[in-house]
Each structure stands twice: as structure tokens, then as C-alpha cells.
Amino acid sequence: MTTDAFFAKIRTYAALSEAAERAWTALLRPRHYRKDDIFIRAGDVPTSCAFVVEGLFYQHYVGPDGDLIVKYFFPENRIAASVSATLLGEPSLFTITAIEDSTVLEYDFAAFRALAATFPDIAAFYIRYMERHWIIEKEPGEISFRHDDAMKRYRDFIRREPELHRRLKQHHIAAWLGITPESLSRLRRAIAYGRMERG
């Protein structure tokens, strides 16, 4: 992805001046991650964010019983970050790992925040991105996790993210739903059977 294409995506959140684009461009570092490479490791203090140009990452941790628990997926055009740890300068509670071979544009978060303090248009992007992806999108999911059963959460996920659903392995989806891969297989069979019944 050229920086032109990157900023075309950024401008879907807020218009940027040429000066703001030049300043942000100076921070961008292209990097490649192979499948299973780690971007942020739990216990480390993260300092960078990564705009996903191509590929897919996931944010995860190991539960008290040793089970994989997935909190979030970062496909193309999302910014991979351990947000609270980066904001607070504290060790991350989560690991962020590449699910696929991936290309990103990384930038130092402290330098980016300095730009946001200098350029109101970058600040507007920052606010709108955080509002959309870390509040508007995440809150309903957190409520659903507490109140909806796994079947409803799975159906909603397929409806909202059909392309992402096709790309993910069964164990990643199961770990996000909070169920075992065997339970996910049963959900899939039930959905397939329901379609056959309607057909």
C-alpha cells in the first residue's frame, strides 16, 4: 500500500491537510510479519501501533485454565494496538499475533499523539477512529457476550463479518466465542441442518 492509499482510508474518518499527511508519513515504517509472528507480547510495554495493510492479526491471552481466549481481530484497514497498555505506558495484558502473513505500517504512538496535539485534523481522525472501533463496535459485543448464547453470538458474527469468518480457523472463532472447537462444530452442524430443513 502506498501512503496515498493509506491516507485515502484515513480520510474516510476525517479530512487531513497536506501538512498533516507529511508529518504522519514521516512516522510510518513498513513492516512484514509472517504467520504466527508476534507484534505485541503480553508483559511488554507497547509503544507502537500498526495499520494493517494486508493480512490479519488477533489479540489474545491465556485464561486461568490454560485456554486460548481471543478478544479482538484486526483485519485490513484496522489499527492493531494494545490500547489501554499503550495509553498508560503499562505492560500489555494481551498478545497480538499475525494469523496470516501480513504487511503493516507501524508508527510510534507517543510521536503520533504529539502530532494529534499539533494538527486538529489528526486529532479528529484519532477521536473518530476510537469512537467507532473501540466504543460503538465493542460495547454491543461486550453486552452480547454477557447476555446472548453462543449460537446467537456466532450467527451475529457471520452476519457482521462474513469475509473474516471465512478466513479464520475454527479454533480462533471458538476462542473468540468462549467455547470449545467441538462446541463450535455442533453450532455449525445445527446451522447447516436448519438450512437443509428450510430448503
TrEMBL record:
Q: Which InterPro entries match?
A: cNMP-bd_dom, cNMP-bd_dom_sf, RmlC-like_jellyroll
User: Lineage, please?
Assistant: Bacteria, Pseudomonadati, Pseudomonadota, Alphaproteobacteria, Hyphomicrobiales
**Superkingdom as given in the UniProt entry:** Bacteria
Gene3D superfamilies the record matches: Jelly Rolls
Q: Which GO terms describe its molecular function?
A: kinase activity
Q: Which residues form the Cyclic nucleotide-binding domain?
A: 31-117
Is Kinase one of the keywords?
A: yes
Q: What is this protein called?
A: cAMP-binding domain of CRP or a regulatory subunit of cAMP-dependent protein kinases
Keywords tagged on the record: Kinase, Transferase
